[in-house]
Amino acid sequence: MPDLLSLYRTMVRIRAFEDAAEIASQGGVAAWGKQASDKPALVRGPLHLSTGQEAVAAGVCAHLKPADLLTSTHRGHGHTLAKGADATKMMCELFGRATGYNGGKGGSMHIADFSVGMLGANGVVAAGLPIAVGAAQGLKIRGQDAIAVCFFGDGAINRGPFMEALNWAVVYHLPVLLVCEDNRISATTESAAMTAGPGASARASSMGIAAVQVDGTDAQAVSEAAAELIREIRAGSGPRLLHALTDRHKGHVSVDPGLYRDPAAVAAALARDGIARARARLVEQGLGAQADQLDQAAKAEIDAAVATATAAPPPDKAAAYTDIQNTGAGVWA
Predict the structure, then answer these.
(1) Per-residue pLDDT tens for 305-322?
(2) Strand 189-190 vs strand 185-186: parallel, antiparallel, or unpaired?
(3) How far apart are CA 120 and CA 310, in angstroms?
(4) Which residue among 13, 19, 183, 284 is the one 20 to 30 A from 249 at the CA level?
(5) Which H or E run contains 210?
(6) Quick one: CA torsion of 196, 201, 204, 208, rounded to 10 degrees?
(7) Which burial class, exposed, middle or buried, applies to 12 when counting CB atoms under 10 A from its CB (0-12, 13-18, 19+)?
(8) What integer pLDDT is reported at residue 27 of this predicted model?
(9) Which uninterrupted H or E stretch holds 129?
């Protein structure tokens, strides 16, 4: 079982990465009522932050092996870092640089690193679910000693791929862990207003999938719940679902001030911040100095990643014509 310092290290690396990316995304064009600044944004396009949700990524991924496969969401920086991806190559991708994971052409929502089992973030809500289930079926057919894990938000449970993926996972008894990061808000709408029934756990149970609900702001609680579910899956239990109740501190995207949200609810979320809770426990255990060191190391790592990404070259114009499937419809000129 990973100790709290290990979980804290993962969480503060994620927070440092997203804080830096958020700053780099400011400027450029006007959006969400903000005026454009003279300084162009270094991160172009939508940047979806998982600030407040770090405990879920840390607690789950602490129990995954390199051979295990992972799919993520449009809010997937934390999952990608926690699975072992390189922070500098990720930042280069966000900055649209040729040295990024996708050569600067994928951006924030499409980072993938097959070398660590990260099959990719995904800009389509719920799209990672059938991909993960398909990956799990591939693992089973090949007889590989590995599992697949899929992170998805509470908004995804109202889309068809959620039920299709759960049905597929049960019918074929697949080694897959489904992780619902339930921050109770889908883009700009409270999920409760458009979701019938109790939510992800109940829907999974109705299809025969054992589901566990956990406080997603408590890294140790997430870790303990994930450890048991993953142990069961590796032992041949079939699919399992982890329903993590968590908080999204920021707006839907980095330039969204989130003025549609209840200020009291946001304040309550900030008061139960997972990183602050973990730090308080470490201080109680006499490990405050070690936590400080991890904070400093995370900042130094991400500052260096930003400097490298800023100086890195953009893709060559010819790269626009690579990685394109030839459908026979014609030749790219």
Answers:
(1) 999 999 999 999 888 888
(2) antiparallel
(3) 23
(4) 284
(5) strand 210-215
(6) -130
(7) buried
(8) 74
(9) helix 128-142
